[in-house]
Design goal:
CATH superfamily: Dihydropteroate synthase-like
Number of strands: 8
Radius of gyration: 18 Å
Structural class: alpha/beta
CATH topology: TIM Barrel
Oligomer: single chain
Number of domains: 1
């Protein structure tokens, strides 16, 4: 998995099966969510990241059973639908990978048991060893996101003496846990958690020194899409109007050797990646 993800900049499309997504693109209609995902695949998405519960802390958590019920129809339909399609080009991962955005072990176990999910996007920051153990048991990859505290709990006043020191201590601890369980580096992805328990200056500091994440020699996912920090810089309240700022974050991420870019507007990002690669000349194609 590691070699595949690092062979060429990868695009992860965001699909929200909920009615309270911060970007306003969520839906409780699983068929509509599937259509959104398939359009992202046509536009060049290498990975679809599907979630059923908004990470917004001003929304009540849904039950575990409800989260599973929202996800299952989509998981059942995604791979068969992709079988009727063709890749955009030779650069795209094919068939596209499926990631589930969650953090509660009951949901992680339920989706991995289907055999249809390759990546768990743990937005809880691996609060204990359970999700890592489940990924090891089912031979899935684990995406570890930096955060502080549990999801669905506001952390808007979180302060850091040094945000990079916090990131590095966090990742050293989580990597030691995951490796102790037996999860190989081929199955681990890191995410600095832009906007999660961070202030504007914390986010900008992460972008500024993003190359520091290369020390771990692991795939790095950068969640760049329509983030609050972009709105803060550009003074744009509406997330859907932040795509130009998202492109700027993409360019910074490419310079810093990030590997995966999690976005809503897949076409814009996939096109940008291919143009930049062509300008640079010569790209390593996936094996």
């Amino acid at each position: 998995m590691k070699q595949l993800l690092q062979a060429f900049p990868r695009v992860m499309g965001i699909v929200n099966i909920n009615d309270d997504s911060f970007s306003g693109d969520g839906t409780l209609d699983s068929e509509k969510a599937l259509r959104q995902a398939l359009q992202m695949v046509r536009d060049g998405a290498d990975i679809i990241d599907v979630g059923a519960e908004s990470a917004r802390t001003n929304r009540k958590a849904i039950s575990e059973d409800e989260e599973i019920a929202r996800l299952m129809p989509f998981l059942d339909a995604f791979a068969p639908a992709c079988e009727e399609m063709a890749p955009r080009d030779e650069l795209q991962i094919w068939p596209p990978l499926l990631s589930v955005n969650t953090w509660r072990p009951k949901i992680v176990e339920a989706v991995l048991k289907t055999g249809k999910v390759q990546i768990i996007n743990d937005i809880g920051g691996l609060v204990d060893d359970t999700n890592a153990r489940l990924c090891y048991e089912f031979d899935a990859s684990l995406l570890i996101m930096h955060t502080v505290g549990l999801p669905k709990v506001p952390h808007t006043m979180q302060q850091y003496r040094d945000v990079w020191l916090s990131l590095e201590e966090f990742f050293e601890d989580r990597l030691e846990r995951a490796r102790r369980i037996g999860l190989s580096d081929d199955r681990i992805i890191l995410d600095p958690g832009i906007d999660f328990a961070k202030q504007k200056e914390d986010n900008l500091a992460i972008y500024r020194d993003l190359e520091r994440l290369t020390q771990y020699e692991l795939p790095v996912l950068l969640p760049i899409s329509r983030k609050t920090v972009i709105g803060d810089v550009l003074e744009i309240d509406e997330p859907a109007r932040r795509d130009a700022g998202t492109i700027a974050c993409l360019v910074r991420g490419l310079v810093a050797h990030a590997d995966i870019f999690r976005v809503h507007n897949v076409r814009a990002i996939a096109d940008s990646v291919r143009v930049i690669a062509a300008i640079q000349g010569g790209v390593a194609l996936p094996q």
